[in-house]
């Protein structure tokens, strides 16, 4: 029986409408891809649990937002209290790339300490209007890591989420040196979506 402390991280996905936020989440949580999924109705959330290192388990509450402008006020209210954010744009949609700075500003105003990762989605697309170089320049300017991913193929989806989770974990003062008290013993709960442990990329 392993002693473990369970942390909870709140993560949010931001980005323009139809950039593939829900698809990233579905791929990450239950390794599925639903073509032509419905638009997110305001806000949704999923749970996934990961093991960061032996004995350190994290329950991720991942908030999926709707990119449509009329939901911005609601979305802003969900940014408060987040531990980290995925800023998503569609590699085949230049407008969605232009919006990234706006979303990062929003996060910085509300949760300035929350780390962000820039995600270029739909990397499987033949037609792209944002080059890797352009995205890397923006990421460097904003001071965030950059990951290109495809929910269709699954390429780099886990990496995108888990890069962020590692950043959040490193952000916690003395996390690595903490003695983990027995808070609870975790058993995956069948009623929760994605309720299985996975090991995090280190
Ligand atoms: N080719 C390809 N299509 C994708 C990918 N990810 C999402 N899509 C498609 O892009 C469309 C929009 O995806 P969603 O995940 O609903 O986008 P969203 O950002 O959640 O949209 P909103 O809820 O409106 O904010 C859907 O038709 C998806 O099937 C991908 O990796 N590759």
From TrEMBL:
GO terms for molecular function: GTP binding; GTPase activity. InterPro entries: P-loop_NTPase, Small_GTP-bd, Small_GTPase. It comes from the Eukaryota. The keyword Nucleotide-binding applies. Gene3D superfamilies: P-loop containing nucleotide triphosphate hydrolases (3.40.50.300). Keywords: GTP-binding, Nucleotide-binding. It holds the Pfam family Ras. The keyword GTP-binding applies. Belongs to the small GTPase superfamily. Rab family. This is Uncharacterized protein. It comes from Neogobius melanostomus (round goby).
């Amino acid at each position: 029986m392993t002693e473990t402390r369970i942390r909870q991280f709140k993560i949010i996905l931001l980005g323009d409408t139809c950039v593939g936020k829900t698809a990233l989440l579905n791929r990450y949580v239950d390794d599925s891809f639903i073509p032509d999924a419905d638009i997110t109705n305001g806000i949704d959330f999923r749970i996934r649990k990961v093991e960061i290192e032996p004995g350190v388990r994290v329950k991720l509450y991942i908030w999926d937002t709707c990119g449509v402008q009329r939901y911005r006020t609601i979305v802003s209210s969900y940014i408060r209290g987040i531990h980290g954010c995925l800023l998503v744009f569609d590699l085949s949609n230049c407008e969605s790339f232009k919006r990234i700075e706006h979303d990062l500003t929003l996060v910085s105003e509300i949760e300035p300490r929350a780390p962000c990762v820039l995600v270029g989605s739909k990397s499987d697309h033949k037609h792209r209007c944002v080059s890797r170089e352009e995205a890397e320049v923006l990421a460097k300017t904003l001071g965030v890591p950059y990951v290109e991913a495809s929910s269709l193929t699954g390429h780099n989806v886990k990496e995108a989420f888990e890069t962020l989770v590692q950043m959040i974990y490193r952000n916690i003062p003395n996390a690595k040196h903490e003695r983990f008290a027995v808070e609870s013993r975790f058993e995956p709960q069948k009623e929760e979506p994605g309720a299985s442990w996975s090991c995090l990329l280190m």
